[in-house]
Amino acid sequence: MFLIVGYIIILVSALGTYSVHGSLAALWVPLEYLAIVGLTIGGFVAGNDVKVIKSTIGALPGLFQGSKYTKALYVDLLSMLFEVLAKVRKEGLMSIENDVENPHESPIFGKYPALSKDHHVMEFITDYLRMMVGGNLNALEIESLMDIEIETHHHEVMVPGHIMAKLGDATPAFGIIVAVMGVVNVMGSVGEPPAVLGKMIGGALVGTFLGILIAYGFVTPVATLLEQKAEEGSKIYQVIKVVLLSSMSGYAPQVAVEFGRKVLFSTVRPTFSELEDELKARKGK
Questions:
Q1: Which of 17, 87, 223, 259 could link 165 by a cystine bridge, Cβ 3.0 to 4.6 Å?
Q2: Residue 223 pLDDT exceeds 90
Protein backbone atom coordinates (compact mmCIF):
# COMPACT_ATOMS: atom_id res chain seq x y z
CA MET A 1 0.00 0.00 0.00
CA PHE A 2 2.71 2.49 0.98
CA LEU A 3 4.60 1.59 -2.20
CA ILE A 4 1.69 2.90 -4.28
CA VAL A 5 1.44 6.01 -2.12
CA GLY A 6 5.16 6.59 -2.58
CA TYR A 7 4.86 6.19 -6.36
CA ILE A 8 2.05 8.76 -6.44
CA ILE A 9 4.14 11.23 -4.42
CA ILE A 10 7.11 10.71 -6.77
CA LEU A 11 5.02 11.27 -9.90
CA VAL A 12 3.25 14.31 -8.48
CA SER A 13 6.56 15.81 -7.37
CA ALA A 14 8.33 15.17 -10.68
CA LEU A 15 5.54 15.87 -13.15
CA GLY A 16 3.62 18.40 -11.08
CA THR A 17 6.56 20.74 -10.58
CA TYR A 18 7.54 20.38 -14.26
CA SER A 19 4.04 21.22 -15.46
CA VAL A 20 4.23 24.60 -13.67
CA HIS A 21 6.67 25.95 -16.25
CA GLY A 22 6.52 23.38 -19.05
CA SER A 23 4.20 21.20 -21.09
CA LEU A 24 3.70 17.60 -20.04
CA ALA A 25 3.10 16.78 -23.68
CA ALA A 26 6.83 17.25 -24.30
CA LEU A 27 7.48 14.23 -22.07
CA TRP A 28 5.21 11.99 -24.08
CA VAL A 29 7.61 10.11 -26.33
CA PRO A 30 6.06 6.61 -26.49
CA LEU A 31 8.91 4.94 -28.39
CA GLU A 32 11.41 5.98 -25.72
CA TYR A 33 9.17 4.56 -23.00
CA LEU A 34 8.99 1.28 -24.88
CA ALA A 35 12.75 1.24 -25.49
CA ILE A 36 13.67 1.86 -21.82
CA VAL A 37 11.15 -0.66 -20.49
CA GLY A 38 12.29 -3.21 -23.06
CA LEU A 39 15.98 -2.67 -22.27
CA THR A 40 15.27 -2.98 -18.54
CA ILE A 41 13.30 -6.20 -18.92
CA GLY A 42 15.89 -7.55 -21.36
CA GLY A 43 18.73 -6.83 -18.94
CA PHE A 44 16.81 -8.58 -16.17
CA VAL A 45 16.18 -11.68 -18.29
CA ALA A 46 19.68 -11.79 -19.77
CA GLY A 47 21.46 -11.41 -16.45
CA ASN A 48 19.65 -14.08 -14.42
CA ASP A 49 18.82 -17.76 -14.66
CA VAL A 50 15.30 -19.13 -14.62
CA LYS A 51 15.27 -19.88 -10.87
CA VAL A 52 16.28 -16.33 -9.97
CA ILE A 53 13.78 -14.81 -12.41
CA LYS A 54 10.95 -16.90 -10.95
CA SER A 55 11.89 -16.14 -7.34
CA THR A 56 12.14 -12.40 -8.06
CA ILE A 57 8.79 -12.24 -9.85
CA GLY A 58 7.23 -14.41 -7.14
CA ALA A 59 8.45 -12.01 -4.44
CA LEU A 60 6.86 -8.93 -6.01
CA PRO A 61 3.19 -9.54 -4.97
CA GLY A 62 4.32 -9.60 -1.33
CA LEU A 63 5.24 -5.92 -1.60
CA PHE A 64 1.56 -5.01 -1.68
CA GLN A 65 0.66 -7.08 1.38
CA GLY A 66 1.09 -6.25 5.03
CA SER A 67 3.70 -8.05 7.07
CA LYS A 68 2.64 -11.37 8.55
CA TYR A 69 5.38 -11.15 11.17
CA THR A 70 3.30 -9.42 13.82
CA LYS A 71 3.43 -9.49 17.60
CA ALA A 72 0.49 -11.93 17.58
CA LEU A 73 2.39 -14.36 15.34
CA TYR A 74 5.44 -14.31 17.59
CA VAL A 75 3.27 -14.80 20.67
CA ASP A 76 1.83 -17.87 18.91
CA LEU A 77 5.34 -19.09 18.07
CA LEU A 78 6.65 -18.72 21.62
CA SER A 79 3.50 -20.31 23.04
CA MET A 80 3.76 -23.25 20.67
CA LEU A 81 7.43 -23.82 21.49
CA PHE A 82 6.61 -23.54 25.20
CA GLU A 83 3.96 -26.25 24.88
CA VAL A 84 6.33 -28.56 23.02
CA LEU A 85 9.17 -28.06 25.49
CA ALA A 86 6.83 -28.37 28.49
CA LYS A 87 5.66 -31.73 27.13
CA VAL A 88 9.29 -32.81 26.69
CA ARG A 89 10.16 -31.75 30.23
CA LYS A 90 7.16 -33.56 31.68
CA GLU A 91 7.03 -36.73 29.55
CA GLY A 92 10.47 -36.98 27.92
CA LEU A 93 11.77 -36.38 24.40
CA MET A 94 10.12 -39.49 22.98
CA SER A 95 6.70 -38.05 23.82
CA ILE A 96 6.92 -35.59 20.90
CA GLU A 97 7.97 -38.16 18.30
CA ASN A 98 4.49 -38.35 16.77
CA ASP A 99 4.19 -34.55 16.77
CA VAL A 100 7.49 -34.26 14.93
CA GLU A 101 6.81 -36.99 12.38
CA ASN A 102 3.21 -35.93 11.69
CA PRO A 103 3.05 -32.19 12.42
CA HIS A 104 -0.25 -31.73 10.54
CA GLU A 105 -1.88 -34.24 12.89
CA SER A 106 -0.24 -32.90 16.04
CA PRO A 107 -2.69 -31.56 18.65
CA ILE A 108 -0.07 -28.99 19.71
CA PHE A 109 0.80 -27.65 16.25
CA GLY A 110 -2.87 -27.76 15.25
CA LYS A 111 -3.64 -25.01 17.76
CA TYR A 112 -1.52 -22.59 15.73
CA PRO A 113 -2.76 -22.61 12.11
CA ALA A 114 -0.85 -19.46 11.12
CA LEU A 115 2.40 -21.28 11.90
CA SER A 116 1.46 -24.83 10.91
CA LYS A 117 0.62 -23.60 7.40
CA ASP A 118 4.11 -22.16 6.97
CA HIS A 119 5.99 -25.09 5.47
CA HIS A 120 9.47 -23.61 5.94
CA VAL A 121 8.99 -22.70 9.60
CA MET A 122 7.45 -26.05 10.50
CA GLU A 123 10.17 -27.93 8.65
CA PHE A 124 12.82 -25.97 10.54
CA ILE A 125 11.19 -26.70 13.91
CA THR A 126 10.47 -30.38 13.31
CA ASP A 127 13.88 -31.10 11.78
CA TYR A 128 15.72 -29.89 14.87
CA LEU A 129 13.24 -31.43 17.28
CA ARG A 130 13.84 -34.71 15.45
CA MET A 131 17.58 -34.30 16.02
CA MET A 132 16.93 -33.62 19.68
CA VAL A 133 14.81 -36.76 19.92
CA GLY A 134 17.53 -38.78 18.20
CA GLY A 135 20.06 -37.58 20.74
CA ASN A 136 23.03 -38.06 18.42
CA LEU A 137 24.08 -34.39 18.29
CA ASN A 138 25.03 -32.03 21.11
CA ALA A 139 23.98 -28.40 21.42
CA LEU A 140 27.13 -27.00 19.78
CA GLU A 141 26.77 -29.24 16.74
CA ILE A 142 23.09 -28.36 16.32
CA GLU A 143 23.85 -24.65 16.77
CA SER A 144 26.47 -24.81 14.02
CA LEU A 145 24.04 -26.56 11.70
CA MET A 146 21.30 -24.04 12.51
CA ASP A 147 23.63 -21.14 11.73
CA ILE A 148 24.49 -22.62 8.33
CA GLU A 149 20.84 -23.25 7.48
CA ILE A 150 19.75 -19.76 8.58
CA GLU A 151 22.58 -18.20 6.58
CA THR A 152 21.60 -20.24 3.51
CA HIS A 153 17.95 -19.24 3.89
CA HIS A 154 18.90 -15.59 4.38
CA HIS A 155 21.09 -15.58 1.26
CA GLU A 156 18.30 -17.18 -0.77
CA VAL A 157 15.57 -14.73 0.24
CA MET A 158 17.88 -11.73 -0.25
CA VAL A 159 18.47 -12.58 -3.93
CA PRO A 160 15.35 -10.79 -5.33
CA GLY A 161 16.28 -7.58 -3.50
CA HIS A 162 19.86 -7.72 -4.76
CA ILE A 163 18.69 -8.37 -8.32
CA MET A 164 16.31 -5.40 -8.27
CA ALA A 165 19.03 -3.18 -6.80
CA LYS A 166 21.37 -4.08 -9.66
CA LEU A 167 18.57 -3.48 -12.14
CA GLY A 168 17.98 -0.07 -10.61
CA ASP A 169 21.67 0.75 -11.03
CA ALA A 170 21.54 -0.24 -14.70
CA THR A 171 18.33 1.59 -15.70
CA PRO A 172 19.89 5.12 -15.88
CA ALA A 173 22.39 3.71 -18.39
CA PHE A 174 19.52 2.41 -20.49
CA GLY A 175 18.06 5.93 -20.40
CA ILE A 176 21.36 7.30 -21.68
CA ILE A 177 21.36 4.74 -24.50
CA VAL A 178 17.90 5.90 -25.56
CA ALA A 179 18.98 9.56 -25.30
CA VAL A 180 22.05 8.92 -27.46
CA MET A 181 19.87 7.19 -30.04
CA GLY A 182 17.68 10.30 -30.08
CA VAL A 183 20.72 12.58 -30.50
CA VAL A 184 21.92 10.45 -33.43
CA ASN A 185 18.51 10.94 -34.99
CA VAL A 186 18.82 14.70 -34.44
CA MET A 187 22.26 14.75 -36.12
CA GLY A 188 20.63 13.33 -39.23
CA SER A 189 18.17 16.20 -39.33
CA VAL A 190 20.48 19.21 -38.90
CA GLY A 191 18.88 20.92 -41.87
CA GLU A 192 15.55 21.25 -40.10
CA PRO A 193 14.42 24.60 -38.62
CA PRO A 194 15.58 25.38 -35.04
CA ALA A 195 12.08 24.84 -33.63
CA VAL A 196 11.97 21.34 -35.04
CA LEU A 197 15.51 20.53 -33.90
CA GLY A 198 14.73 21.86 -30.41
CA LYS A 199 11.74 19.55 -30.14
CA MET A 200 13.81 16.59 -31.32
CA ILE A 201 16.62 17.33 -28.85
CA GLY A 202 14.09 17.71 -26.04
CA GLY A 203 12.57 14.37 -26.97
CA ALA A 204 16.01 12.75 -26.91
CA LEU A 205 16.72 14.12 -23.42
CA VAL A 206 13.46 12.58 -22.20
CA GLY A 207 15.28 9.24 -22.36
CA THR A 208 17.79 10.33 -19.72
CA PHE A 209 14.98 11.73 -17.57
CA LEU A 210 12.96 8.52 -17.80
CA GLY A 211 15.94 6.28 -17.07
CA ILE A 212 16.79 8.14 -13.87
CA LEU A 213 13.14 8.47 -12.76
CA ILE A 214 12.38 4.78 -13.30
CA ALA A 215 15.62 3.71 -11.60
CA TYR A 216 15.49 5.78 -8.43
CA GLY A 217 11.78 6.44 -8.25
CA PHE A 218 10.39 3.00 -9.03
CA VAL A 219 12.95 0.18 -9.18
CA THR A 220 15.16 1.12 -6.21
CA PRO A 221 12.23 1.39 -3.74
CA VAL A 222 11.16 -2.11 -4.79
CA ALA A 223 14.69 -3.40 -4.13
CA THR A 224 14.75 -1.75 -0.70
CA LEU A 225 11.38 -3.22 0.26
CA LEU A 226 12.37 -6.71 -0.88
CA GLU A 227 15.53 -6.55 1.23
CA GLN A 228 13.57 -5.30 4.26
CA LYS A 229 11.05 -8.12 3.95
CA ALA A 230 13.85 -10.67 3.59
CA GLU A 231 15.50 -9.39 6.77
CA GLU A 232 12.16 -9.47 8.59
CA GLY A 233 11.44 -13.03 7.47
CA SER A 234 14.76 -14.34 8.80
CA LYS A 235 14.11 -13.28 12.39
CA ILE A 236 11.63 -16.07 13.11
CA TYR A 237 14.33 -18.71 12.54
CA GLN A 238 16.66 -16.97 14.98
CA VAL A 239 13.93 -17.05 17.63
CA ILE A 240 13.37 -20.79 17.11
CA LYS A 241 17.11 -21.41 17.27
CA VAL A 242 17.56 -19.58 20.57
CA VAL A 243 14.57 -21.27 22.22
CA LEU A 244 15.56 -24.81 21.20
CA LEU A 245 19.23 -24.35 22.12
CA SER A 246 18.26 -22.90 25.50
CA SER A 247 16.16 -25.97 26.14
CA MET A 248 19.02 -28.25 25.13
CA SER A 249 21.24 -26.38 27.58
CA GLY A 250 18.91 -27.39 30.40
CA TYR A 251 16.81 -24.26 30.87
CA ALA A 252 13.15 -24.58 31.78
CA PRO A 253 10.60 -23.95 29.00
CA GLN A 254 9.57 -20.61 30.55
CA VAL A 255 13.17 -19.42 30.54
CA ALA A 256 13.84 -20.77 27.03
CA VAL A 257 10.95 -18.82 25.48
CA GLU A 258 12.07 -15.73 27.39
CA PHE A 259 15.43 -16.01 25.65
CA GLY A 260 13.56 -16.23 22.35
CA ARG A 261 11.45 -13.19 23.22
CA LYS A 262 14.58 -11.09 23.75
CA VAL A 263 15.75 -11.84 20.20
CA LEU A 264 12.73 -10.12 18.63
CA PHE A 265 12.66 -6.62 17.17
CA SER A 266 11.19 -4.12 19.64
CA THR A 267 8.25 -3.37 17.32
CA VAL A 268 6.92 -6.94 17.54
CA ARG A 269 8.31 -8.07 20.89
CA PRO A 270 5.66 -8.83 23.54
CA THR A 271 6.51 -7.70 27.03
CA PHE A 272 7.43 -10.25 29.68
CA SER A 273 4.02 -9.80 31.33
CA GLU A 274 2.14 -10.11 28.05
CA LEU A 275 3.86 -13.37 27.19
CA GLU A 276 3.49 -14.75 30.72
CA ASP A 277 -0.24 -13.92 30.79
CA GLU A 278 -0.68 -15.51 27.36
CA LEU A 279 1.06 -18.72 28.43
CA LYS A 280 -1.09 -18.93 31.55
CA ALA A 281 -4.27 -18.30 29.54
CA ARG A 282 -3.42 -21.03 27.04
CA LYS A 283 -2.38 -23.61 29.60
CA GLY A 284 -4.73 -26.54 29.51
CA LYS A 285 -6.46 -25.49 26.28
A1: 223
A2: yes
pLDDT digits (tens, 9 = 90+) for 31-89: 888 888 899 999 999 989 999 999 999 988 888 888 889 999 999 999 999 999 999 88
What is the C-alpha separation between 242 and 261, in angstroms, rounded? Answer: 9
Q: Which residue in 226, 161, 172 sits closest to 39, CA to CA? A: 172
pTM of the model: 0.81
Residue of 7, 14, 47, 38 lying closest to 222 (CA atoms): 7
Q: What is the CA radius of gyration of the chain?
A: 27
In this structure, the number of other CB atoms found within 10 A of the CB of residue 58 comes to 10
Q: Is 191 exposed, middle or buried (0-12, 13-18, 19+ CB in 10 A)?
A: exposed
Of 240 and 206, more confident: 240
